[in-house]
Every structure is written in structure tokens, then in C-alpha cells.
Design brief:
The complex is a heterodimer.
Chain A (H helix, E strand, L loop, with lengths): L1 H10 L3 H27 L15 E4 L2 E4 L4 H8 L1 H33 L6 H13 L2 H12 L4 H8 L13 H24 L5 H8 L4 H12 L1 H16 L3 H6 L7 H11 L3 H30 L3
Antiparallel strand pairs in A: 1-2
Helix pairs in contact in A: 2-14, 4-8, 4-11, 5-8, 6-8, 8-11, 9-10, 11-14, 13-14
Chain B lengths: L1 H27 L16 H8 L1 H34 L6 H9 L6 H19 L7 H26 L3 H8 L4 H30 L2 H6 L7 H9 L5 H43 L1
Helix pairs in contact in B: 1-11, 2-11, 3-6, 3-8, 6-8, 7-8, 8-11
Classes of the chains: A mainly alpha, B mainly alpha.
Chain lengths: 303, 278
């Protein structure tokens, strides 16, 4: 009996293997495998059944038939709505990443150059909102931006405008919401990079007569490249698939792919089309994701 | 130093931009008027009304339950992943592993949510589990993406700490697990707490993943809020939103305060030890 017990124990993975195996298996099963399934379902057809799609393989009369339905992808390429939604997502993601960088870089710079004692406090102040519900922070803007909201009331009180300006349910509101929600994700990697810079380089530059603005362009900015890449990717990639912000702050003119996918899935109950939308989105994002992962790996290895 | 003055200004402007909307939300949650944009005097009636809303209260309890499970599981898995990435050298599939751990950080939630739902449906067909989707499936989804956050936080800390103590213990013949529990773990404990807290908050906040993988009768708080918010701004939502903001801010602040104190204590002890030895 004891022998058997020992044998069974022997089957259990030991030390190093268990440490690698447990998280590896979890991520393989719940992160990577689902992508294979999503690709599979994107070749199925919607069906009134549970689950609501047809099977790809069929076994009848000793024949195995594999049915690959490219209809979803044909639909995606022919219907202008989907193309417009992809382009709209990429456009909004690009400009909001740029806005985040323009606002976030000076913020990260100010924190990195502030008093050593104060740095964690500033950083906490920037990061704290990301731990509090995104949904609620977006919701807060709905009250501010609406036609009879605080912003319009203030503008009218100041006499800048005579009647309310439509801001909520336009792309402007979407930009505000995205920059608001994603700014901390830009600041954090930039700060982590900027704080490591060797300031003696800047001193040397100034000793040699470089103006501080020249020194910034020639030294600080190139050195912060990996921080810029990390920050931009942390904003750009999730924003392409963003759903909550365009849904709550955007309007009919806001075409974003996350919203379209959501509608296909929850309103039209067309799982295969939703899957093919996700597959194409993934293909669009694969280059930025690989770029991000490489950058992260370099940072993680400590160069 | 003009560039620094400009960046200083941007820091204050940015922080105002971040905090002002939340402040406004909290102020308006005390508005007596049902019209959310008209100020009708101070009142706490919306807070009192929350307790009678059993549907909302059930969702709150369910979300807290899922968030607690997620915090525990994601911290354990994320710490293991961080150990693999920082302390175990090369092994087959290391690049794949690194990719799988960091990719959920940026992966759009609609993709992760849909793909996980399809996995659960396929699993139910193949092995009969999970028969119905609910708390467990949401927990799995949240754990998967929170693990990535935890592993980033913990591995940053693992790289930072002085490895000489671990090496000394190893040289003296301590088993790897003993080294981990007696030496490494106490040193990285603050980052574990931070990771757990982050997972808790992320889980409590998630709408998209939960919407995809939940089943009938397992509505979480964000789902409840979302369906109410879609209809426009409501005073009850202002109240529950303010409570969540307060709750998370207090936990965050406490966490920050205690990790800072622990860190100072540790540094003092180390300093004392070194001066004593010297």
C-alpha cells in the first residue's frame, strides 16, 4: 500500500516542473486554447440551436465531411459597415494614444524629476483611479458632458455659448473618455523608464553648451524609447477593442469594432460572425502585441 | 528649467482632470433632486434607498464573492508565473510562456470574453462541465487576466530584491521551497498584497468578461450598473458609484500605508543588522 502511495506521489510533478506547469497549464487552457476555438467557430454557420452554430465536421455513411464556411469572412469584406468599424477603431485608437502620450509624458517627467520622497505619492495619485471602477469613471463623464450637464451649464453661465453644445454621444466625448481612462497606463511605464535615466548625461550636455530643450530631444527622448513603446501599446491595443466607452459616451457616428462585435453577439445572437470579427481584430493587433511582448520581455530580463 | 515647470503644470492639470469628475459624481450623489443635473439641496435618501434594492444588493454580494476568489487564485498563480520568469532559467516554451503571461494585459476584453465563452461551451459539450455558467466561469475568466497583472507586479519586486540572502540559504543546504517560504516570500510580501488588491479591484470592476461568461441569474454589480446606466444618469447609481469609489480608495490607501511602513521597518532592521555587524 505504501509502495503504491509512493508510486502515485512519484507521478506528481516535482518542484521545478510543478512551478512551471501550474501557471503554464492554466494559461494554455484558458488563454491560448480559446483562440483556437474562436478560429474554428468563425468557420461555422449561425444556427437556431444550442449552441447557436453548426458543427464543422459531420460523420455519415462512413464519410467524414469537414465543412468550412467562409461566408462570415465574405460578409465582413462585402459589408461596408464592418470595414468602417475597423477603420474607425484604428483611427480613434491612434489619436487617443497620441493624446495620452502628449499629456502623459510631461506628467511622467514631472514625477520622475520630483523629490524622491514625493514620487510614490504622485504615482499613487495617478494610479489610484485605475483600481476604481472604469464603468463608474465613464459614467461620471456622462453627467458632466450631457446637454444639460455641468459643462454646458458652466459654458452658458460664462456666456461662451448661448445654447448647449452637443458633446455627449459624439466622438469628442469618446476621446475624452478614452484619454481619461487610459492616461495612467501611459504614465506608469514612462515613469518607470524616466526615473532610471542617468542625470549626469544631461549635466554633461549642459556643460558642453547644449540648451535644455536640445538635451531633451537628443538625450532624454531617445533614452525613453522603450517606455514610450510600452505606454503606447498599453493604450493602443485595448482601445481598438474598447466597448464600454464608445457605448456609453459615443453616438451613432461612433463606429468601433468592439461595439459591433458586442451587438453581433448579444443582439443578433450570431456567434460565428462575432468570432470572425474577433479573428480579424486579432490579426490587426498581432504586430502591436508582439512588439509589446518583446519590449516587455526585454524589460523583464533587465536588458 | 522651463521644461520642468511646464511638466509640473501638466502634472497638476492631469491630476485635476483625473479627480474632478469623480469629485463631482460624489457631490451629486447627495443631490435631493431626482433631476440629476439640477441641484435640489443636500440629501442622503439615495443611499438609504440602496438597501431596499435587493436585486442590487445581491449583485454586490456576488461581485464581492467573485472578487475574493479571484484575488486569492490570481495572486497564487501570478506569483508562480513571476517565479518562473525571474528565478527559473531557460526551459522549453519559455518564450511562449512569457507571451501568454503578458498578452492578457493588452488583449481587448471583447476577444478574451468571447473566446472564453466558446471554450466553456465546447467543454460543456465534450466533458459535460461547466453545465451552467455563473460564479465559477466568471471567476476563471477574472483569474486568467488578473494573473497577468499580479505577475508583472511580483516579478518587478523579485528582480529588485537582493538575491544574496537566497543564495546564502541555498549554499547552506536549504531546499528551494524552504528558501522561498522563509526568505523570498517575506521580502516580496508587499507586492503580493498589492497584486491581490489589484486583482480584487479589477474583478469588482469588470463588465465585459463577466457579460460574456455569466449565465442567467448570475448578474454581477457592473452588469447591473451598466444596464441601469444605459438608460441615462440616475441618482441611485450616483450613490452606489460613490460608495464603490470610497470603498476602493480606502483599501488602496491602507494598502499603500501598510506596505510603506513594512518597507521602512525592513530597511531599519537591515541597517541595524549591518551596523551591528560592522
Amino acid at each position: 500500500m505504501k509502495k503504491l502511495g509512493n508510486k502515485l506521489l512519484g507521478l506528481l510533478p516535482k518542484g521545478r516542473h510543478a512551478v512551471i506547469g501550474v501557471p503554464f497549464f492554466w494559461m494554455l487552457l484558458f488563454f491560448l486554447l480559446p483562440f483556437a476555438i474562436i478560429i474554428k467557430i468563425s468557420f461555422a454557420e449561425a444556427d437556431i440551436a444550442i449552441p447557436p452554430y453548426t458543427s464543422l465536421t459531420e460523420w455519415a455513411d462512413n464519410q467524414l465531411t469537414v465543412l468550412l464556411n467562409f461566408g462570415n469572412y465574405v460578409l465582413l469584406s462585402e459589408d461596408g459597415l464592418y470595414l468602417a468599424a475597423y477603420l474607425g477603431s484604428l483611427k480613434i485608437a491612434f489619436f487617443s494614444t497620441l493624446l495620452c502620450l502628449l499629456v502623459g509624458y510631461p506628467m511622467a517627467y514631472a514625477i520622475a524629476r520630483s523629490d524622491k520622497q514625493m514620487r510614490p505619492v504622485w504615482l499613487l495619485l495617478v494610479m489610484m483611479p485605475t483600481w476604481t471602477a472604469l464603468l463608474i469613471r465613464v459614467y461620471a463623464w456622462m453627467g458632466i458632458l450631457s446637454n444639460n450637464g455641468l459643462l454646458n451649464n458652466t459654458l452658458m453661465w460664462l456666456g461662451i455659448v448661448n445654447e448647449p453644445v452637443q458633446i455627449l454621444n459624439t466622438n469628442i466625448a469618446v476621446y475624452i473618455g478614452i484619454v481619461y481612462a487610459y492616461l495612467p497606463f501611459m504614465v506608469l511605464p514612462l515613469y518607470a523608464n524616466l526615473v532610471k535615466h542617468d542625470l549626469s548625461l544631461l549635466e554633461a550636455a549642459s556643460d558642453l553648451g547644449a540648451k535644455s530643450i536640445t538635451a531633451f530631444w537628443k538625450i532624454t527622448l531617445p533614452l525613453s524609447k522603450s517606455g514610450i513603446i510600452a505606454g503606447c501599446m498599453l493604450v493602443f491595443i485595448p482601445v481598438v477593442g474598447e466597448f464600454v466607452i464608445p457605448e456609453l459616451l459615443g453616438g451613432p457616428e461612433t463606429l468601433m469594432i468592439g461595439k459591433v462585435l458586442w451587438q453581433e453577439f448579444f443582439n443578433n445572437r450570431d456567434w460565428p460572425v462575432a468570432s470572425s470579427l474577433a479573428v480579424i481584430m486579432l490579426l490587426l493587433l498581432i504586430i502591436p502585441i508582439v512588439l509589446f511582448n518583446r519590449n516587455q520581455a526585454r524589460e523583464l530580463e533587465g536588458k | 528649467m522651463t521644461s520642468f515647470r511646464f511638466s509640473r503644470f501638466m502634472l497638476f492639470a492631469g491630476l485635476t482632470f483625473i479627480y474632478l469628475p469623480m469629485l463631482i459624481l460624489v457631490i451629486y450623489s447627495f443631490n435631493a433632486s431626482r433631476l440629476v443635473t439640477v441641484w435640489g439641496g443636500w440629501s442622503t435618501k439615495w443611499y438609504a434607498g440602496l438597501l431596499d434594492n435587493t436585486q442590487l444588493m445581491n449583485a454586490v454580494l456576488r461581485s464581492l464573492e467573485i472578487a475574493s476568489y479571484t484575488a486569492i487564485a490570481a495572486t497564487a498563480l501570478g506569483t508562480l508565473a513571476a517565479l518562473v520568469l525571474t528565478r527559473i532559467g531557460q526551459f522549453k516554451g519559455r518564450t511562449l510562456f512569457g507571451g501568454m503571461v503578458t498578452a492578457p494585459l493588452v488583449m481587448p476584453e471583447v476577444i478574451t470574453g468571447l473566446s472564453l465563452l466558446l471554450l466553456f461551451v465546447a467543454m460543456a459539450q465534450l466533458i459535460g462541465w461547466p453545465m451552467e455558467r455563473g460564479v465559477v466561469t466568471i471567476w476563471i475568466a477574472h483569474t486568467t487576466f488578473c494573473t497577468a497583472y499580479v505577475s508583472v507586479v511580483v516579478s518587478a519586486r523579485l528582480r529588485e530584491i537582493d538575491r544574496s540572502m537566497e543564495e546564502a540559504a541555498m549554499d547552506l543546504g536549504a531546499k528551494p521551497w524552504k528558501v522561498f517560504f522563509l526568505i523570498t516570500l517575506p521580502m516580496i510580501a508587499p507586492s503580493l498584497a498589492a497584486g491581490a488588491m489589484m486583482s480584487f479591484a479589477l474583478s469588482l470592476d469588470d463588465l465585459v468578461l463577466a457579460s460574456f461568461v455569466s449565465g442567467p441569474g448570475s448578474t454581477t454589480l457592473p452588469m447591473e450598473i451598466f444596464s441601469a446606466v444605459r438608460m441615462g444618469v440616475k441618482p441611485e447609481i450616483n450613490a452606489i458609484a460613490s460608495l464603490i469609489l470610497l470603498f476602493i480608495s480606502i483599501i488602496t490607501f491602507m494598502l499603500w500605508f501598510f506596505t510603506r511602513r513594512a518597507e521602512e521597518k525592513r530597511k531599519k532592521a537591515l541597517h541595524k543588522f549591518k551596523t551591528y555587524k560592522g
